[in-house]
Amino acid sequence: MGFIELENIKKIYNPNTTLEVQALKNINLKIEKGDFCSILGVSGSGKSTLLYLLGCIDKPTSGIYKLEGKDVSNLSEKELAKIRNEKIGFVLQDFGLIEEETVIENIMVPFLFSSKNKKSIRFKIEKILKDLDIFDLQNKKVNLLSGGQRQRVAIARALIIEPEIILADEPTGSLDTDTSNNIMNIFKNLNKEGKTIIIVTHNLELAKETNKCYKIRDGLIYKV
Ligand SMILES: Nc1ncnc2c1ncn2[C@@H]1O[C@H](COP(=O)(O)OP(=O)(O)OP(=O)(O)O)[C@@H](O)[C@H]1O
Ligand SMILES: [Mg+2]
Q1: Which of 44, 104, 161, 195 is the least crowded, having the fewest Cβ atoms under 10 Å away?
Q2: 222 burial via Cβ count (<10 Å: 0-12, 13-18, 19+)
């Protein structure tokens, strides 16, 4: 039994309309616990679509998604939300931060939806903020931060529920080389702690640092 298994996954947006897009045509993919994977592919190839499916943010049009042996392809919205809140830390392509709120307010957002034990939460938050080197920024509004700082806030928010799986969509997209390497090191350390990590990237050099690399082309996935 794989940790994450996709079988014949298809994702069609707006099926049977003039706006129909076959974003994923037939995806078969196995990811083991503790893997550090990267997904490459040109713009529009389906990378974010795949990540949304893996993150239980969206459902496939057809095919089977098994997470820890359990078929999650046809769960209700409520059941999917439960999985997301318990297991998955998602770093969105555009960070998805609330601009007018402070760093700490943004990081606390997942707790609004999580039933996880909130004991020792202050200690945990402090550790994450320090690990990501944003402790001193915690009371700043997000719209005053640099790209790299925002990226670390988005990662901190994903980590706050202590997810087993971290999905990150272009986590170094708009960052300079040093900042990208710094973000990559954060993921490497999380992976060493045992987290399963899947990142989408355009950067081949960064992809080489992961232990499994895939490429999406025309809605199909290939091992690189
Ligand atoms: N919500 C949606 N409704 C309709 N079509 C969509 C939707 N989201 C994505 N698509 C289409 O599906 C295809 C795959 O999009 P996706 O966002 O997965 O690509 P991507 O590889 O992440 O691209 P990028 O590198 O630009 O982020 C594209 O043709 C896109 O236009
Ligand atoms: Mg994308």
Answers
A1: 44
A2: exposed
